[in-house]
Amino acid sequence: MIFHPAEQLSRLPGPPNALWPQGARSVSAFRHGTMELKLYAPRGHDPQQPHAQDELYIVQAGHGCFDNGGEVVDFGVGDVLFVPAGRAHRFVDFSDDLAVWVVFYGPDGG
After folding, report:
1. Do 66 and 73 form a contact (C-beta atoms < 8 A)?
2. What is the dihedral of CA 35, 78, 29, 109, to 10 degrees?
3. In whole angstroms, what is the distance from residue 31 CA to residue 85 CA?
4. According to a count of CB atoms within 10 Å of the terminal CB, is the N or C end of the chain lower?
5. In this predicted model, what pLDDT tens digit does every residue of 30-89 receive, in sequence order?
6. Are 23 and 15 a contacting pair, CB within 8 Å?
7. Distance between CA 24 and CA 3 in Å, rounded?
8. With a threshold of 0.85, does the pTM exceed it?
9. What digits encode the pLDDT tens for the residues 2-37?
């Protein structure tokens, strides 16, 4: 299987929800077992809440800073960020073109 960022981005914004009244900024590309692959493209702010599964972010486009449980790091295209299940995290001070692949995997709780 192959997943193209442009194809996934064309599906955004998705339907409005409580976090994204102007339309959801993530789209599911693939699921298999406990793993889900999404493309996430926040615009303006990142309202994420901690997730039940471990996750990897793979930066497809853009740059900025990432707050991972209070540790803030710079990131850019090609970088991979890991967040354990349950940890508060979010993208901060990021470019308007930010798009990241997100891989959720494993059991709830990490």
Report:
1. yes
2. 30
3. 18
4. N
5. 999 999 999 999 999 999 999 999 999 999 999 999 999 999 999 999 999 999 999 999
6. yes
7. 19
8. yes
9. 989 999 999 999 999 888 888 999 999 999 999 999
What is the spatial distance between Cα 37 and Cα 33, in angstroms, rounded to a whole number? 11
Per-residue tokens: 32: 């298999």
Domains and CATH numbers, the chain: 5-105 (2.60.120.10)
Q: ω before 13 within 30° of 0 (cis)?
A: yes
The contacts of residue 47 (CB under 8 Å, 6+ apart) are 19, 20, 90
Q: What is the number of H-type helices and E-type strands within the chain?
A: 1, 8
The residue assigned the tokens 């486009």 is: 61
